[in-house]
Amino acid sequence: MIYKPNDVMFIEIHLVDAMTKQIMSDLNSQYDLGDFQYVAQFKIMDDQDQEIYRYESNTGRNGTIVYTYKIPSQQNGGEYTISITSHLFPDTKRKFRIRSYTSQEYFTTVDFSKESYTPSDQVLAKIKVKRADGTKLKPDLIVNYLSQMSNVRLDERGETLIQFNIPSDTRQDLLSLVVEVSTPDSQPENSVHSVTIVQFKDLQMKFYPETGHLVADIPNKVYFESLADYEGSDVAEFISGELLITDLNAKEELVLSDIKPTHIGRGSFTFTPKELTGGSAYMFKAKWNRASNGQRYLMSNVDISKNLLFRVQDAVINPKVKDQIELEILANQKAVIGQKLMIKLQLKDKVIYNETLILSSHLQKFLIPLSNLSNNLKNGGIVQITLSSFNQLSEDTLINQQEVLIGERLIFILPSETLNLDIKLDRSEYAPGDQVSVEVDLKNHQQLENDTVFYSMIPSLPSMVYLENEVYQKFGKNEFWYSYDYLDAVFNDLQYDSISHQNLDILLGIQGWRRYLFSEQEFKSLKDRIMNLDDKNEEKQRFEKLIAEKQSHKIMYKNMRGGGIKNTMFKVQRYDEVFDAQPMAVEMAMGAPNDIELLDNKPNIKQAANNILNEEETYDFMKGISTNSRLYTHLKRENWTQQSARIDMTQTLKFTSALEFNPKNKLQTFEINDQISTFRVTVSAFSKQANNFNSTLQVELTIQDSSKAEGQSSILDIQPYSQTQKNYLLSANYSNVQNIVLKVQVSAKDQNGQIYSDSLTRQTVVLPNGFKQKQSQSGLIGMSSSQTVEPMLKFQFQLPKTFVPGTLKVSTAKVFAEPLDNILSAVESLIQDPYGCFEQCSSVTYPIVMALQFLQKAEVNARSDAQKTKIQEMMLNAQQKLDVGYKKLLSYESTQGGYEWFGNNPAHEALTAYGLMQFNEMKKVMPGTVNDEMLTRVQSWLIGRRDGAGGYHLSQQALDTFGRAPVNITSAYLTWVLSGLGYKKLDLELRSLLNQTHFTDDSYFLALVSGAAFNLKRLSEAIELSKRIVQAQNMTSGAVLNSQTSITSSYGSSLVLETTALSLMNWLNQDRRLFAPNIEKAVKFIISSIEDGGRMGSTQSTILCLKALILYMEQYSGIKGNGLFSFYFDGELKDFITFSENSNSTQSAFDFKDLLEKQLQLIEFDDKAHEVIIKIENYTTNNDIQRQDFSLSYTFQIDYLDAHPPTALNPKIEFYLNLKQSQNSLQNIQTNFQQIQIINTQKDSLGMVVAIISVPSCMRLDFNQFELLKQKKRFDSFEISSDMSQYTLYWTGIKPFNHQTGEGKIELDILLVRQYQAIKCQQRASVAYLYYDIENKIWI
C-alpha cells in the first residue's frame, strides 16, 4: 500500500486460531466474540528500524483489532513497516510506502513475462491502460514506450503487447520502462515500470527432492527454483533446462531435457536416479535466454542410506471433490519388505493422524480419509506428512524403538465451506457530493443459521492500491508458513483450477523440511543449535519464527490491512509527537520552488486570499476521527454545492470494522468527495466458525462530472491542452517552508450559449531555494587574574554572495548567567529516538547517557523551581528513550561473545569496548536497568581477546570507521576502557603501550595511555605523558593538536575535539592545579565547538567532550561583581545590559538577539565582513575587592539560506554528478539518468559516505528503483524526501581507489523522468561528504 503525507491509514487485524483458522478474541473463552483487552505494541518503523510511532494495548471486538494512524505532513518518503508485538502471539509485520504521487487521469500497468531478465533476453510484456474515472478510453489514445516505438494503439480492452531485446553488453541492474499515454488534446502522462536485469554470473539454482532425499532406482520428483543471486533477492527464469550426468573429465550424459519453470521461476521434474561412482555427479544445465549456452549447477547425489520414499497423488485437496489423501510408497530393491513404517500427519506441531503399517511391496498405496483426521479441518490448512521407519532397540513395544525419519512433504487442504459474498451499488455512476448506498449481501447466510458473520468495508481511491504493483514484494520461504494472504491472492476463486493447484504444489515443494519444529525430542537441541548461528542466517530466521509459533501457537494474524490517526494518549512518553526520520542526523537539503504548470483553456489562476497557511489551516477533511476508530464515514463539507470549488481529495471514504451481518439491514452509506475518479469498494467477510479466507470482494464505483452524471450532453468549445500558463514563485517571498493554495477556474460555452464552469483548489508546499547554513561562535567571557578568560568576546561573520535574501535571522545571541547554561540547552537537543545498527543506535543512546549525567548534576544546582522542573522533564524524556535504546543495543550481542554492528559473528573488539563503556555509564543514570550478567559475559569475552604478548587479537572486519584504526590506537583504546571499568590485570598491555610512547608524539595515543596509566594507579607515568601533551596545545584556541587518527578514524575538528577532551579529563583527574591554564583553555575550546543539535563534532567527540565537561563543572561558579555588557557593532557602541551577582538567581541569560537583529536589518544584502563585540565595562566588586575571577559561557549564531554552499578546501573524496539523457528517450518526454561518482582519494579506506542528491524540479524519481538497487548492494541504505525533491544514499565505507581494478570508486545511475516541458527546470545543489568528516563537504 502506498500513502502520501497527511493520508489516514486504517489498520485492521484479524485474530485467527492457528490450528482451526477460526476467528477468536478472548484467550480464556476462545470463541466468545465481543470486546476484549488486547495486550500488544503497535509500532511503525522506518527503513532504518527507527520507531516513529507506538501505541500500547488496545480493545478488540469481534475477533479484530483496529489501529489508526495519520501520516505526518513532513514524514520522509520511503518504505515503512507496521509491527504488532505481543508476548501472547507471534510477531507480525506489514510493509507500506510513503511518497507523493500526482492525481492521474490514467492508470497504467505493465505485466512483464518474467520476473527478471538477462543480457540479450527478449522482453515480452503487456501494457494495460484504464482511465481513473472508469470511463471508456478515447479511440485516439496512443502509447509510447521506447523512442523507436511511438504512437502505439491499444485494443478495445486498453491493452497492447510489446516486445524488444535487452542489449547483450548491458551492465545495468534495472530495466526501467517508461510508458507515456496521451491523446492529441491532453497533456501526456508517464509512468515507470522496473524489473531486474540479472548478470549471468549471479544466477543461482536451488533443488528440493520431494521428500528430502534422492533415492536410487525409483522415480523421484525434484522441485526447483531459479534465483537472481545466492541471497534470493529476486526470482529468475530460464527458458529451458537439461539434467546431465558429468564425470571428472567433463564428459556429459543427457538424462532429461526440455525442463521448464511453470510458476515464477519455479517448477519440478521427475527422473529415476542411480548411484554414481568415480566422481560423477548430477548437473542441471539452465539456458537462461536464447543467446545463452547454458550454465551448470551441481545437484545432490543419491542418499545410499535411503531405500524408499513416498509421494502424494494430490498436493492440493479440495474436500468438495475428494474426501481422502492418496499416498504411494515406493521402495527399491534394497528395501526390506515387511519392515514397520509409520505415517504421521501434523497441523503445525499438533499430530492429527498417525498409523503404523507393514511395507508389503515395492509400490504400495495408502489412503487416509479426511474424516479420520482428529482436528477440525473444515477451514483447511497446510498439513505436514512424514514417513518414518524404526530401528529395533529391544523386543519391547515402540517405546523402546527409535524412529528414523524417511521423508516429509507439505500438502494444502482447501476449506470445505466458504462465504458467498455479494456487493451491489444503488447506481452505476455518481457525481461529486453524491451519496452512495452499498448493499452487502451474504447469499448463503441461510446455510449458516448457527453461525455469526461479520464484515469490514473500505471504499478508497484505487491510486492508494493501484500503485502497489511498483512495490517489489518477494514471498520467501521464511515467510511461507504465515503467508495465508499470499495463498488467498494466488488461489482466490480458483479452488477448482488445476493450474493453480499445480502452482501451489510447487510452492509447497520448495519449502524444505520442517521436522525440527514438530519433534518434541529435538526441540531443545534445536534451540541450542540455532543459538550459535548468525542472526542473518536464513535457517535461523526460519526456525526462530517456527519456534515462536510452537511456544505460542494458539493465535495467528490475518489480513493486516492499510490504516490511521495518530493517538494522543502517551503525552508523558511523548508518543504524541512524530519525529522526522533522520537516521544519521545528516543535513537534508531544502527544496527549490517547482515550476507550476496549470493546464486548461485560458485558465484564471488565483492564489487564495490567505495563500500562506498555518499548520492548523490545512485542507484536512478527516479531522476529529477518534483514536483507533472502528467506524468512519466521509460526509461532504457544510455549505457544499455543485458550484463549490473542488478541494476535498480525501483518499478513504468509509471504514467499518467487523460489523455483524444483518439480513434486514444490508446498506452502508457515505458521500463522495470532489475527485473525478474511480473508487474501489472492498468488503471482507468472515464468520465465527466458517473459513474467513476467499471472502474478499471488490467493486468499483465511477465518479464523473455533474453534467454527464445528469445525462446531459453538450459540445463544449474547449481548446486542446496545448496552451499552458506558468506561474513562477519568487524565492525571496518564500524564505521558509510554506503551504500555499492554488485555485484554477475554467469556463466554456456550448453551441447554445450555455456556460459551464469548474474550479479546482489544491494545496501544495513551496520549499525555499537554498540550504540552511550558520555562522556561530561559543566560548567564555569573564574576569580572570591569570588571563585565562578574556573580558571581551568577538563574533565575526560574513554572508556569502550566494546568500538567499530574506532568510537571515539570529538564532541565538546570549551570555549565560550560569557558566554552563548553554550546555543545558545543547544537551536537550541530544535527546533523540534510537535507531539503526549498534553504532548508529549508540550515536543516540550514548549522548543521552552523558546528557543524563549532566542533568543529574544540573538538577542539584538548579537556580529556580522552574529550571528544576524543566531539567526533570528532560530527564524523564531521556530515560524513556534510553530504555528503548538499551533494549535495542542488547539485540546486537554476538552469539559467540561481544558486540557487532548487526549482532553477527565474529564480534568486534573496539566496538565491544565502546559498548561496555556505554553500558557502565548507563548504570550510573539508570540503576537496576543494565544486566550485570551481560556485562560480565561481554567483559570476559573482551579480556579473553588479549594475545598474551601485550596486545589483542583483533577482528579484521571493519564496517564503517570502527576497526580501521591502527593497531597501537586500538590496543590503547581497549586498555583504557578495560582499566576504566576496574580491570587491573593489564600490566603486560600497559608496559607494551608505555614502551611505544617513546617513539611517538601522537597526542591522541598519548592521552589514551596516560588515562590507562592513571586508572591502573601509575600516577607518575600518567602525569609525565600529560605534560608531553601540554606541548601540543594551542594556547590561543585551547585545542590539543598533533593527532594522526582516533579509534573511529575521525578527521578534522572531530579528531581535535576527541584529543582535547581526553587530555582535559587526564588533566582534571591527575592534577588540577598543575594543569590549570591548560584546563581553562581546553574548556573554552570545547564550549566554542557546540553546534546546533548539541553536538560537538562526531558522536565519539561529543561523548568525550560531555564526559570532560561533567568533570569540570564540579568546580565552576557564576557571576561575581557588577558591571555592564556593552554591545558594539562594527566598532560602534549600540547599547548595553547591566549585570550583578544577583543575576545568578534572577535570570538565566543576557539576551542580545533583538539588538543584533536590528543591526542585521540594515546590512541584509551586504556581503562584507562584520563584527559584534561584547565588552565587560564599569566592573566593580563588593567589599572593595579589586577583582574576583569568574567566567560565563556564551553562544552567538546567525542562520540563513545559501543557494550554493562552498565546497571544502581539502575533502578526502571526489564527487561528480552529471545529468545524462537516456538513449531510450520517448518522443514527447525525456528519460534521464543522474550519474553519481564518488572516489576515495586517500591511501586508506574511509568510513561512511553520504550523498544528498537533488532532483530537477521538472523531473520525477522512479521510487521502485531504490529498493532494487539496494538489494543489488549498489548502496547500503537510502532515504527519499516525502515530496520526492531529493534522495540520500549511504555507503558504509569505501576502499582506496585502484586505477586498474576500479576499486574505491562508487558509480551509480539513478533514473529520472521528465514530468513536463519547462522553460526553467531548476536544479538545486547536491552534496557528498564523509559521515565522520562532516565539515569537509563537496557541493555541486
From TrEMBL:
It comes from the Eukaryota. One of its GO terms (cellular component) is extracellular space. SMART domains: Thiol-ester_cl (SM01419). Residues 821-1112 form the Alpha-macroglobulin-like TED domain. Keywords: Signal, Thioester bond. CDD domains: A2M_like (cd02891). PANTHER family: CD109 ANTIGEN, MACROGLOBULIN / COMPLEMENT. This is A-macroglobulin complement component. It comes from Stylonychia lemnae.
